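Summary for the steering committee. The consortium agreed at its last meeting that each partner would contribute one worked example illustrating the joint modelling workflow. Our contribution is presented below. We chose a case with several input lines so that the handling of multiple components could be demonstrated. No manual editing was applied between input and output; the record is shown as generated.
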Amino acid sequence: KAGVTQTPRYLIKTRGQQVTLSCSPISGHRSVSWYQQTPGQGLQFLFEYFSETQRNKGNFPGRFSGRQFSNSRSEMNVSTLELGDSALYLCASTLTATPGETQYFGPGTRLLVL
Amino acid sequence: AQSVTQLDSQVPVFEEAPVELRCNYSSSVSVYLFWYVQYPNQGLQLLLKYLSGSTLVKGINGFEAEFNKSQTSFHLRKPSVHISDTAEYFCAVTLTGGFKTIFGAGTRLFVKA
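What follows is the complete predicted structure of the assembly.
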């Protein structure tokens, strides 16, 4: 079974631009969570989607948004990029997002904002 | 609110030596506990998790962890490490009734020959 895939793997943008990152979960998984990983803040939860509905959201500004499609693929969008948005963005999928369920992570998209 | 503290940011150790990576958590309600490993340029991979039952949990690659409710700890151990264990290790908690996962800051394990 193929793992979680994320595209693109690397991205360079400039301040003020917007970016869209994509995540394809493991086949059959219905929940996708997004995390931002930085050296200073570690892994921080962005949001979680299940069956096209956002169920949980972390403490990030409204510039960060996401959505999930009927095939469970998910995208996250960051508008008006700031230098501090440079990070590794990870997505993780689970079958049903039942508490205690194992999350399967993709390799991440490394975003550099100049 | 829940929080996770990994007490060591870096742990250097010689090959074949034992290692313990420490994790403490804070929560007023029941949690599930996890250890994940991240190898360079890769995503996170589950090592082991505690949901209920025996407090000693065995995971992949020879790792094990012990849940101590009174000390709110979930330390990760391996009796003999290999060079290939060099990676970053994350402790995490999830509320038993919730979906959001809180991760610790990570511990970088560096195994020396």
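Chain B touches chain A through 24 residues (CB under 8 Å). Chain B has a mean pLDDT of 93.
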